[in-house]
Amino acid sequence: MSISPIAPTPPYTALIFDCDGTLADTLSLHYKAWSESVQVFGAHMEREWYYNRTGISTVELIQILNATYGYQLDVEQVKTEKNRRYRQLLHTVKEIQPVAEIVRTNYGKVPMAIASGGSRYNIQTTLKAIRLTNFFDSTIAIEDVALGKPAPDIFLLAAQKLKVKPSECIVYEDSNVGLEAAQLAGMRGIDVRSVLKHLEATTSLIQTDSQNLVP
Predict the structure, then answer these.
(1) What are phi and psi of 113, to 5 degrees?
(2) CB-based burial of residue 44 (10 Å sphere; 0-12 exposed, 13-18 middle, 19+ buried)?
(3) Which residues contact 89 (CB under 8 A, 6 or more apart)?
(4) CA–CA distance, 173 with 62 (Å, rounded to integer)
């Protein structure tokens, strides 16, 4: 598949990438970990509810779940359980190929950073699993900022670390809160969900054609 639909359009001095759901196909893994973890504590999380809130930090998501459904989940207990379950699944993660190709194409040409609402451990483990560890000049995790997305803090810090102006950066994101954060940071944002939908549709078509083959 051509990367042209999401290729960065000049002028730009640096590229910034979200990790989960943008570079790495982790959303289903995150949901599995979330769903199983909250069940341990007597709660429930719908898939659609979670998918509509991707990009929000772990702590904030637990707080929103409590407020929405009247749960009294202990933030640290659920966070620990979710991280434990998610890390058991990380070895299965795959790259999102069109976005990963953007990284490979621009490597050595412009500075690049990861700016994610995930923990540093999870980011590093994910990048190792998809073999992109050494492609980035800086990694900004949720531990590095006071506020997660949609606040612009993560992206502004990434620009600072890359020593470029925010207006010279292009951000790759897969969530509404991430794109809002990029806009608030004064950066151009590229929504990768269009190529993800194309990939899903193509995969579904291939599977259907395969099932219809006459033996």
Answers:
(1) -140, 155
(2) exposed
(3) 29, 32, 33
(4) 22
User: Sign (positive/negative) of CA torsion 140, 143, 148, 153?
Assistant: negative
Q: State pTM to two decimals.
A: 0.83
Peptide bond into 5 cis (omega under 30): no
Active site residues: 18
- Model confidence pLDDT, tens digit, residues 10-66: 999 999 999 999 999 999 999 999 999 999 999 999 999 999 999 898 999 999 999
Instruction: Report the alpha-carbon distance of residue 54 to residue 52 in Å, rounded.
Output: 6
| Number of other residues whose CB lies within 10 A of the CB of residue 12 | 16
**Which one-letter amino acid corresponds to residue 102?**
I
Distance of CA 200 to the CA centre of its chain: 17
Coil, helix or strand at residue 46:
coil
H-type alpha helices, the chain: 27-40, 47-51, 58-69, 75-89, 97-106, 120-129, 153-162, 176-184, 193-211
